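Module 6 notes. Inverse folding takes a fixed backbone as the condition and produces residue identities as the prediction. Think of it as a translation problem where the source language is geometry and the target language is the twenty amino acids. Below is one complete input and output pair. Work through it position by position during the lab.
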């Protein structure tokens, strides 16, 4: 013998309330995390752009004597 369970109107009411709450929470958290990560990304890009200037490569001092090169 099987025991059948029917989905009552109360079940569907609770289901719809929880579904709407889950969608709302998901949308809010998505917006918050997107805003936070966009701000962090902009901050990192700005830091790289305004960071210390790249160093010039080391060049030896000019000397008086140069060896001649002949081809």
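Target side of the pair, the amino acids:
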């Amino acid at each position: 013998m099987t025991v059948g369970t029917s989905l009552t109107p109360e079940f569907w009411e609770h289901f719809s309330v929880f579904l709407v709450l889950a969608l709302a929470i998901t949308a809010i958290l998505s917006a918050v995390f997107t805003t936070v990560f966009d701000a962090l990304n902009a901050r990192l890009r700005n830091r790289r752009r305004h960071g210390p200037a790249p160093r010039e490569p080391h060049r030896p001092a000019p000397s008086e004597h140069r060896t001649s090169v002949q081809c």
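Reference fact for the lab report: The two ends are 105 Å apart (CA to CA).
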